[in-house]
Design goal:
Order of helices and strands: HHEHEHEEHEHHEE
Structural class: alpha/beta
Strand content: 15-25%
Shape: globular
Strand order of the largest sheet: 3-2-1-4-5-7-6
Radius of gyration: 15 Å
Largest sheet: 7 strands, mixed
Length: about 200
């Protein structure tokens, strides 16, 4: 049975949801070359020695940037073995595992920084995913959840933007679990940053 999205309530048929086979490899290359995530790294504000988790690392573009931040440990989970293989080539020693937003497999309060980019609308259950992010984040840690949109999105990103009611639901869900939730319009992403209490 296909995974269902909390956004539409219907099945997810996108090769970007859990890339596999030839279409999955092509999706990985597309993500690698079209997603620019330097602004996400700035928003995440990783300090030297901190432990960082990316949920849905895809082909590893953001993992590569995170590995250069001076973080003490960089980890990632993704449901796709295909993406794990691609990301491992640029992981810089990161610990890449198979997992999902609702089941990362990491112990409680393992990370100072947790980030997910362009995955939240693909989750079957928004709150299950957000609760898992909260569970693995240490008190005082920062979580960033970002999706296509922003101040100057590409034509593709514009077509993938979430309606305001869905963005509001993400912000409300984060506010139920975290403190100081703020919305940021990056160049091609709408991002929410929150602090764990």
């Amino acid at each position: 049975m296909a995974t269902r999205s909390w956004v539409t309530g219907g099945p997810i048929n996108s090769p970007f949801a859990s890339p596999s086979g030839l279409l999955g490899r092509l999706a990985g290359w597309f993500m690698l070359y079209t997603n620019r995530q330097e602004e996400v790294v700035s928003l995440l504000d990783v300090r030297p020695g901190e432990h960082v988790l990316e949920v849905g690392y895809g082909p590893g573009a953001l993992i590569r940037l995170l590995a250069r931040t001076g973080a003490g440990r960089v980890c990632g989970v993704d449901p796709s073995p295909e993406m794990r293989e691609q990301a491992a080539r640029r992981a810089g020693g990161a610990d890449l595992r198979l997992g999902t937003a609702s089941d990362t497999g990491f112990p409680d309060e393992s990370f100072d920084r947790v980030v997910t980019v362009n995955t939240v609308a693909l989750w079957p259950d928004l709150m299950d995913g957000l609760r898992e992010l909260r569970r693995v984040t240490r008190p005082g840690g920062r979580v960033v959840v970002a999706w296509h949109g922003g101040r100057d999105p590409s034509r593709i990103a514009r077509s993938l933007r979430l309606p305001e009611d869905k963005l509001a639901r993400i912000q409300e869900g984060l506010s139920e679990l975290f403190d100081e939730v703020k919305r940021h319009e990056l160049k091609s992403l709408t991002a929410f940053a929150a602090r764990s209490s």
